[in-house]
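Hallway conversation turned thread

IA: we were arguing at lunch whether anyone had actually written out ANR52 phosphatase end to end. Turns out nobody had. So, for the record, here is the sequence (128 residues) and right after it the structure tokens. Reply here if something looks off.
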Amino acid sequence: DQERRTPLHAAAYIGDVAILELLILSGANVNAKDTVWLTPLHRAAASRHEVAPLSAPTPQKALHLLLKHSADVNARDKHWQTPLHVAAANRATKCVEALVPLLSTVNVADRTGRTALHHAVHSGHLEV
């Protein structure tokens, strides 16, 4: 679209794992960035689709599927926010839990100097 969001961005946001997998297996770039540099992983974290192992019978596996296909957990948007910042700000506890073990540090600051913890507290996400 006008903001360079791909079908993968849309599928990640709505959590449509079947479409996500089809797009990825057809060659879609899991690290494609839109005009504000959001990746499908950012979009999945923003939508609060919680994660489950791919073998689990739940429909909310978008984030995990992207991670399985080498989505960049350290990707930054134009505000220097990572998917962890986005998940923390959007109260996506399971997404945060899936991302944290994959990071070398959770104390990465965005352009305003805020870490994921700052975003979590600001949004009332006290579980983080």
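OS: looked through it. Confidence is low (pLDDT under 50) at residues 56-60.
IA: good, adding that to the notes. The two ends are 34 Å apart (CA to CA).
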